[in-house]
Write a structure and sequence with these properties.
Elements: E1 24-28, H1 33-43, E2 49-52, H2 65-75, E3 79-82, H3 84-92, H4 96-106, E4 110-113, H5 124-136, E5 140-145, H6 156-168, E6 173-177, H7 178-185, H8 191-200, E7 205-208, H9 216-225, E8 231-234, H10 239-246
Parallel strand pairs: 1-2, 1-8, 2-3, 4-5, 5-6, 6-7
Length: about 260
Amino acid sequence: MTKENHCAFLELPQRVKPRREGMTSFFDYFLPHAEVKNLVEVAAQAIDWAKLIHIGLTTNLPENWLEKKLSLYRAHGIRTYPGGIPYQMALVQDKVEQYFDWLVECGFDGVEIAEDAMSSVMTQEKRGEFIKMAVDRGLEVHTELGKKDPEAPMDLKEAYESIQFDLQCGVSHCVIERSELEPYLALSDVGPLLEFVERIGLENLLFEPGPFGWPHVHRWCFQTFGKKVNLGNITKDEILYVEWSRIGLSRFVNFDYFQ
């Protein structure tokens, strides 16, 4: 007789994929296939997207390494996209169209369009052209808001206008970096930020508390935006705790399942 691995008699909140809110994007920094297999064995249901950091920028990977990794994620219902740095390299080298074609050929599901590491900023019109170029190729587009090292807090009016433009161009989610969130962590009144999020729609945003924000930024995101917040750059050691938080079974949400 096969023994159950769980208490089948206990009713747990169900989170069915695919999801538009309450999504978790996994931070994959060249993880070996064996580690990914171990992760998806226990946490595939908790992961909506895998973000492959700096993929395409190294020449020492084994043959078919990327194809096998993307297939592994796909087999477990996890969509994939690269981090924003390869796009920014393609942008400064005027090879964005070639980059998008490469993503499609490889089998990626999406792309991150960002300028967060660059000193210059392209025009809104040009960004819109690239968004539509990616969408026309069947890629789901995530645009990233802000800089990795901002010199001033995010201007919410400018951010709202930028996000609205991107959404109208066909963007799936707009990403807000940890560095843009940190100024708000110490504030007692986050009312303006909450109003900003409400106007845009929580489901249209993805907040990146990681990497390097564990656990305080993650906890703040849950306590500020609720359990349906979309979170990105979540590492393999954080995935399951984030998922427990989404169903009310962690300190991040004060175990509110029992309240």
